[in-house]
Amino acid sequence: MGCVCVKPVKHTPGYEDPVILASETTFTVSEVEALYELFKKISHSIIKDGLIHKEEFQLALFRNSNKKNLFADRVFDLFDAKRNGVIDFGEFVRSLSIFHPDTEKTEKISFAFRLYDLRHTGFIEPDELKEMVLALLNESDLCLSDDVVQQIVDKTFAEADKKGDGKIDPDEWKEFVVQNPSLLKNMTLPYLKDITMAFPSFVMKSEVNDDEM
Amino acid sequence: LNMNAFDIISLSAGFDLSGLFEGSE
C-alpha cells in the first residue's frame, strides 16, 4: 500500500494562524491571507529571512532603503511590538489592523498618541512637538523661522494642554483629536477595506471560508 | 499659517503607509 507524502507548507518565522489573527483584528481570514502575500514580498526584498527589517520597511514606503525619516522610524518601532528590531507577520497584521477603516477610533487615537510620544514618557511634551515639526520641515520644501515654529508649538499647546501643566496627556490628546478630526486621517488606510479585492494578485486559495467564521 | 503643529507633522511621507501596498502590486 502506498503512502501520500504531503510537503509541509513552509511559513516565515513569526507566522501565526490567520484564523487566530482574524479573530483578534478587524480583518477577515481571507484578508489576513492576502496580507501574508504582501508580508512575504516586503520581508524578502533585501534580507530574505521572512522578517521585515527597517531597511525593507523604508524600501517599501519610499522605494529607497536608506531614506531616513523620523516618522517612518516611529511607525516601524510601534509595529515592532516585541522590540527585537524586526516586524514578524503577527506584528504586521495586528498593527495594520489599527489602520483599517472599520477599527474603533479609540484605538487609532491611542496609536497616534504613542507615535508622538517620542521619548515614551506617557506625555507629548513641547520639545518633542518642536522636534517633530522641525523634522517635517527638514523633509519638505516648507521653510519657517524658528520663531514661527515656536509660535505654532505654543499655540498648539495652548489649545491642547487643557490642564496647563506643560504636557499633553492621553485624555487631553483624545479631546484635541475630537475637536480636530483631521489629525486621524493618517490612521486610516482605505486599501485595507478589502485588500483581497484591491490586490487580486494576493488572493490565495483559502482553506477557510470567512462565512464559516 | 493657520495649522496646528500636529497638522504640519501629519504631512510627513513617513506616515503614508499606502506605499507598502502600491509598490507590491
Break the fold down into its secondary structure elements and pairings.
The complex is a heterodimer of chains A (213) and B (25).
Chain A: H1 18-24, H2 29-43, E1 52-53, H3 54-62, H4 70-79, E2 86-87, H5 89-98, H6 105-116, H7 126-139, H8 146-160, H9 170-179, H10 195-198
Antiparallel strand pairs in A: 1-2
Helix pairs in contact in A: 1-2, 4-6, 6-9, 7-8
Chain B: H1 5-9, H2 19-22
Task: Describe the 3D structure.
The complex is a heterodimer of chains A (213) and B (25). Chain A is mainly α and 213 residues long. In chain A, 50% of the residues lie in helices and 2% in strands. A two-stranded antiparallel sheet of chain A has the order 1-2. The radius of gyration of chain A is 20 Å and the shape is elongated. Chain A starts with 17 loop residues before the first helix and ends in a 15-residue tail after the last helix. The mean pLDDT of chain A is 89. Chain B has 25 residues and is mainly α. Chain B has 2 helices and no strands. Chain B has helices at residues 5-9, 19-22. In chain B, 48% of the residues are buried. The mean pLDDT of chain B is 84. The chains are: A mainly alpha (213), B mainly alpha (25). The A-B interface holds A 38, 41-42, 60-63, 69-75, 96, 99, 116, 129-130, 132-133, 135-137, 139-140, 142, 144, 148, 152-153, 155-156, 159-160, 176, 180, 182-183, 185-186, 189, 191, 195, 198-199, 201 and B 1, 3-21, 23-25.
Characteristic key phrases:
heterodimer; A: 213 residues; mainly alpha; two-stranded antiparallel sheet; 10 helices; B: 25 residues; 36% helix
Task: Spell out the helices and strands of chain A N to C.
Answer: HHEHHEHHHHHH
Distance between the termini of chain A: 37 Å
What's the number of extended β-strand segments of chain A? 2
Derived from helix and strand composition plus strand pairing, the structural class of chain A reads: mainly alpha
Low-confidence stretches of chain A: none
Strand content of chain A: under 5%
Rounded mean pLDDT score of chain B: 84
Biggest interface, which chains? Answer: A-B, 47 and 23 residues
- Helix content range of chain A: 40-55%
Total strand segments of chain B: 0
- Rounded mean pLDDT score of chain A: 89
Helix content of chain B: 25-40%
Oligomer: heterodimer
**Tally of contiguous helical segments of chain A:** 10
Uncertain segments of chain B: none
Report the span from N to C terminus of chain B: 38 Å
Shape of chain A: elongated
Biggest beta-sheet profile of chain B = none
Structural class of chain B: mainly alpha
Helices and strands of chain B, in order, run as HH
Spatial order of the strands forming the largest sheet of chain A = 1-2
